[in-house]
Structure formats: structure tokens, C-alpha cells
Design a protein that fits this description.
Layout (H helix, E strand, L loop, with lengths): L4 E4 L15 H6 L5 H17 L3 H15 L4 H15 L4 E2 H12 L3 E9 H11 L3 E10 L2 E8 L4 H14 L7 E4 L5 H5 L3 E5 L3 H10 L3 E2 L4 E2 L13 H10 L2 H17 L2
Parallel strand pairs: 1-3, 1-6, 3-4, 6-7, 7-8
Antiparallel strand pairs: 2-9, 4-5
Helix pairs in contact: 4-6, 5-10
């Protein structure tokens, strides 16, 4: 048995909104986008929250965002994200997800965020959460600016491929690993681990999870994590561990049921 890890999708799994669209207003205030783009991003956020996103919608969002950021100064983006991260992201992190992350860390597992959003956003959120690694979309950068081209798109099968590559590098036993997502587009990621869980699943993923006997859980309590952080800006183990005792129980029970069911069926 090798090492194990827990892989978390980000949007609607760990946080209650789309991370790629959450920074529309500060990007506008920083002069990177116009008011029309803010309104379009707000509308896209609403549609995403209500209906989720299938592969076609994900592709449209990808194309829209890559065209939007073409020519942006990378350091300006990183600075805006850093300055507004706590105000925008801290209040929308699911309490259940934060507790579950801490439970995995307490069990000795690495925690990895796997998101189709850009690395400049995902890495900052990963640091906020105190996770071990992130896998995110990487854009091509030339002369300090985004070219509008994608170096690596962290979605669908690419997520699974990146996880397999990381597993080889870190010695993870994928049969002992966990994965969490809300979207049917993440079926490849969920399918390669021994303990997949559907979190706030869209209709297609819920159907698939039921068919395959995967646990299905609901996270619905966004909570500001500032009180959980030390002066160093890192999650404090005792605070999260205490919270973890009372939350995430449904997710853990589901995982234990799946593990027993899996052992009994011999798969």
C-alpha cells in the first residue's frame, strides 16, 4: 500500500461559486475589463450556479475567458487576486469541505485541489485552504502578459491524466485515494480513484453515482474561515480539527459505506 491523497474539484465542491468568474468586479476596478464584461460574468455565474456546466458550456466558458484575459499583465492579476481573496473567497468556502479537508490531513493524506480555473486564482485559493498541491489550467505567458493560448487545460480527461502523473511522482496508490466533484465532466477523475464521492452533483453525475454506488453528499454551509486562521494566514490544525468532529459526517459515512460495499462485491 502506497501513500494516499484526496483530490478536490474546486467550484461548487469546495467553494459555492465559480472561481473563474468570482473576480469580475475587482478586475473591473483594476482596469482589466469593462462594465459589460462584469455584467456578462455575473450572468454566467448565475447560470453556472443554477444549471452547472456540461462539456459544451465548459468549452464556451474557456474560450470566453481565454479571449478576455489576452494581453493582461500577469503580475497585476496576481496582485488583484491576493488583495481581494479573503473578501471574495473566504466567505464562500463550504464548512463541510473545510472540515473534510482537515480530516484527510489528519489521516496523513495529501490534499490536492484540481480545477479548470487558472493557476493564478487556484494557487491563491489553495494557499488560503492550506492544501498540499494544486492542479490548474496554465496559460501561456510572454513578456509578462497572457497570450490567450492555453498551455494546459485542467478539465475532463486532462484532470485524470494530471492526477495519474502526480500519483507516479509522489507514490500515491490511486486505489487508496479519494476524489470529490460536483460535475459529470469530472467522471474521469472520479473513476480513477478507489473512493470517489459526488458532492452537490449535477443531474448527470447524480445519475452516474447512483448507478455505480458512489456516495452522494450535499455541502451547503458556506462559512467565513478568517476565525480559523492564525496570524500567519494558515489554517490552524486544532480549530479545523474541532470543527471536523461535528461536520462532514455524511460524507465520511458515505465513504465508509462505499468501501464496505466495494469490498463485499470484490471489485
Amino acid at each position: 500500500m502506497g501513500r494516499s491523497a484526496a483530490f478536490f474539484d474546486l467550484d461548487k465542491t469546495v467553494i459555492a461559486k465559480s472561481s473563474a468568474l468570482a473576480f469580475g468586479r475587482p478586475f473591473y476596478q483594476g482596469g482589466l475589463i469593462n462594465r459589460r464584461a462584469v455584467l456578462k460574468s455575473t450572468y454566467a455565474q448565475f447560470v453556472y450556479l443554477v444549471n452547472g456546466a456540461d462539456e459544451v458550456q465548459m468549452s464556451r466558458m474557456r474560450d470566453y475567458l481565454t479571449e478576455l484575459i489576452k494581453g493582461w499583465d500577469v503580475e497585476s492579476v496576481r496582485q488583484i487576486v491576493a488583495e481581494t481573496l479573503h473578501d471574495l473567497i473566504d466567505p464562500i468556502i463550504y464548512d463541510e469541505a473545510a472540515a473534510l479537508i482537515e480530516r484527510h490531513r489528519a489521516a496523513g493524506r495529501d490534499v490536492v485541489i484540481v480545477s479548470s480555473s487558472g493557476d493564478e486564482v487556484v494557487s491563491a485559493i489553495g494557499e488560503l485552504l492550506g492544501v498540499d498541491r494544486v492542479i490548474a489550467t496554465r496559460m501561456v505567458i510572454a513578456d509578462g502578459r497572457f497570450t490567450g493560448e492555453i498551455e494546459f487545460y485542467a478539465a475532463g480527461p486532462n484532470k485524470a491524466a494530471a492526477i495519474k502523473e502526480l500519483a507516479i511522482a509522489e507514490g500515491y496508490d490511486l486505489d487508496e485515494c479519494y476524489a470529490y466533484s460536483d460535475s459529470i465532466t469530472d467522471e474521469p477523475m472520479l473513476d480513477i480513484v478507489g473512493h470517489p464521492t459526488a458532492v452537490n452533483p449535477d443531474r448527470a453525475l447524480r445519475k452516474l453515482a447512483i448507478e455505480r454506488g458512489w456516495p452522494v453528499v450535499t455541502f451547503k454551509r458556506p462559512v467565513a474561515l478568517r476565525r480559523r486562521f492564525s496570524e500567519m494566514g494558515r489554517p490552524t490544525g486544532p480549530m479545523l480539527a474541532t470543527a471536523a468532529v461535528g461536520v462532514g459526517a455524511a460524507a465520511v459515512a458515505g465513504m465508509l459505506w462505499y468501501r464496505r460495499n466495494r469490498s463485499t462485491s470484490g471489485t
